[in-house]
Amino acid sequence: MKSSSVGTTDQAPADPRAADDILVSQPVGYWSGLAHAAVTRHLRDAMARIDVTQPQYWVLNRVNGGPEAPSREEVAAQLTALADGPHEIARVIDQLLHRGWLRIDAGQRLRLTDAGEAARVRLRALVTEVRAVVHQGVSDEEYVAALKVLRRMVANVEGHAGL
User: Fold this and answer.
1) Do 59 and 70 touch, CB atoms closer than 8 A?
2) How far is the C-alpha of 112 from the C-alpha of 123, rounded, in Å?
3) Which end of the chain is more exposed for a tag (fewer CB within 10 A), N or C?
């Protein structure tokens, strides 16, 4: 394996047991995918224990998160890219309306009910606890550095799909 300052390290096969001195040759897609799957699974398992899904949390946050109450179409448009399919967010909105955590006002805007706000606050506390587990042993500086590296890698490849 050869490394240079311009990033031409040879790519080695993914190896979850790779020693620190050869991590530079490991594929970022493998490791970022593994991290995504493990963290998402851990979070979704924690939420399932209180009968909530991650997409439900997204919707509660989005409905709460802006200066104006959004329409169901606006929420779906903003969150569909994160979802497991094009219809998932619409279904989640229906679930939350049925559960009494959302209501639709006279202007066809989504609003949290008192129960929905209480659920959002409980979920926020749960997510904070899960974050603490995920970040155990990782300093804020290391976390920021990791995200900056990932952000740079995304920027490096956006628009270069044909290469």
Assistant:
1) no
2) 14
3) C
